[in-house]
Design a protein that fits this description.
Oligomer: single chain
Helix content: 25-40%
Order of helices and strands: EHHEEEEHHHHEEHEHHHEEEHEHEEHEEH
Strand content: 15-25%
Bound molecules: zinc ion
Shape: globular
Radius of gyration: 24 Å
Strand order of the largest sheet: 7-6-1-8
Number of strands: 16
Length: 435
């Protein structure tokens, strides 16, 4: 950590917070207007030094500058718009509801956390929430429950959680009218107390151009402790790191960037480096094919073990069922084949997409027997099988329409899943069972 490093900050504000939730289904002109206004303004011609440590020239809309972040799968996209009246503002793309590659997981995480704080304060002052307010309040709480306690440096988990949350929001309808604050005095007061006390940051680990950056949030107290700027801009700026506040930057970088992902962190790191080199993420979709052979039972076990490691190999004692989405102890979840293993070629057997964790509380067997099938990641009821009881149907009805989180681009233990491969196996199984 050397002097010359700095933190670029932007005061957090409500319309930016709202962007995180625009995937929620709500037919409203204001909501749609929010979607059209998709960029976060961060600096302009009057602040030429704001981004200069990162890049000498900021690109335009068609060729934005990419800023690689140490704790994000996706780089930040920044460009300079030509709007002289507004002094050519610098903008950051934040179309969370459209493009996965424009999401920065850690910012999303903090936004959900701040929203929880905001709604708790609002709930206390309002005493009783309306049904729509309560629906959103419950969503926020459930969302954080789904993530659980997490080390903030584990950004791949945060990314996957965010991806899943955006998916859930896109199938959730809530009237968000109350979330427009023009005449919602109580909400406005809560916003001042909670949202506005936060700062989005991009921090530089050392002072070289193209050095490592990471992003996060700091609160008002932290901001006041470390800010040494003498300018009066209250929206954005740069905090220079000196002897007084360098230990704080070190603390921040540890909070957000230390990789503690067990033995596979090397694979992940390698792939992140590939990504930073502007290549595609090169996570594997196959296990090594040479380690098993149908002739030897022992080797067969090795293949299964290796696939199992991909899905079950972290320290968490629990795992989410790929069908019902419920979390069970790993003892109660099997790594089920989407296409019957005996019918798979060696190539298919080595494909991590041929298997998926399924729980023993019904999902595994219902899939195997063909009562349910998966189409493009969504669980469906196969009505061709009529030998079904009312109680079985009741269970099936609780899972149809759910989307499997493992379906596509799910990153886990150095591997990434592929939905079109999965579709092939599920199709095969469906046709077999529908005869
Ligand atoms: Zn299940």
């Amino acid at each position: 950590m050397s002097n010359g490093s700095h933190i670029i900050w932007r005061k957090y504000f409500f319309s930016q917070l709202r962007r995180n939730f625009l995937s929620i289904q709500y037919e409203n002109r204001e909501w749609k207007k929010q979607k059209a206004d998709h960029a976060l303004e961060w600096g302009n011609d009057t602040t030429p030094n704001l981004w200069s440590s990162i890049t000498q020239n900021i690109g335009d809309r068609s060729e934005p500058t990419l800023i690689n972040l140490k704790n994000s799968i996706h780089p930040l996209k920044i460009w300079k718009s030509d709007n002289r009246n507004r002094r050519n503002p610098c903008k950051i793309n934040q179309e969370y509801w459209l493009h996965e590659e424009q999401r920065i997981g850690i910012w999303f995480y903090h936004s959900v956390l701040i929203t929880k704080e905001l709604l708790s304060d609002y709930k206390t002052s309002k005493e009783s929430l309306s049904n729509n307010e309560l629906a959103f309040y419950n969503y926020i709480h459930k969302s954080l429950d789904r993530l659980g306690n997490i080390d903030l440096s584990n950004y791949l988990e945060i990314h996957n959680w965010m991806k899943n949350e955006i998916q859930i929001m896109s199938t959730t309808t809530i009237d968000m009218n109350w979330f427009f604050t023009a005449n919602n005095k109580l909400l406005n007061e809560s916003i001042k107390k909670t949202v506005n006390n936060n700062y989005i940051i991009i921090a530089q680990i050392d002072n070289k151009i193209n050095s490592d950056f990471f992003c996060g949030f700091i609160n008002e107290i932290e901001f006041k402790k470390i800010n040494n700027s003498t300018t009066n801009n209250t929206s954005y700026g740069v905090i220079k790191i000196n002897n007084k506040n360098s230990s704080y930057l070190l603390k921040l970088s540890k909070k957000y960037t230390s990789l503690k992902m067990g033995i596979d962190s090397n694979i992940l790191l390698k792939d992140i480096i590939n990504f930073e080199n502007q290549k595609n993420i090169n996570l594997k979709t196959k296990i090594d094919i040479d380690i098993f052979d149908e002739k030897y039972k022992g080797r067969r076990r090795k293949e299964q073990k290796k696939l199992k490691y991909i899905y079950f190999g972290d320290n968490n004692p629990n795992i989410e069922c790929g069908i019902c989405g419920k979390i069970y102890n790993k003892t109660f979840v099997w790594m089920s084949h989407l296409k019957k293993r005996g019918e798979c070629s060696d190539e298919e057997k080595s494909d991590i997409n041929v298997v998926m964790p399924m729980c023993l509380f019904g999902c595994d067997k219902l899939y195997e027997e063909g009562y349910i099938y998966i189409d493009k990641g969504v669980i469906r009821h196969n009505k061709i099988l009529t030998n079904i009881t009312k109680d079985m149907l009741e269970y099936v009805n609780t899972i149809v329409g759910k989307k499997s989180k493992y379906w596509d681009e799910y990153i886990i233990n150095g591997a990434i899943t592929n939905g079109s491969n999965r579709q092939k196996y599920c199709r095969w199984h469906y046709e077999k069972k529908s005869k």
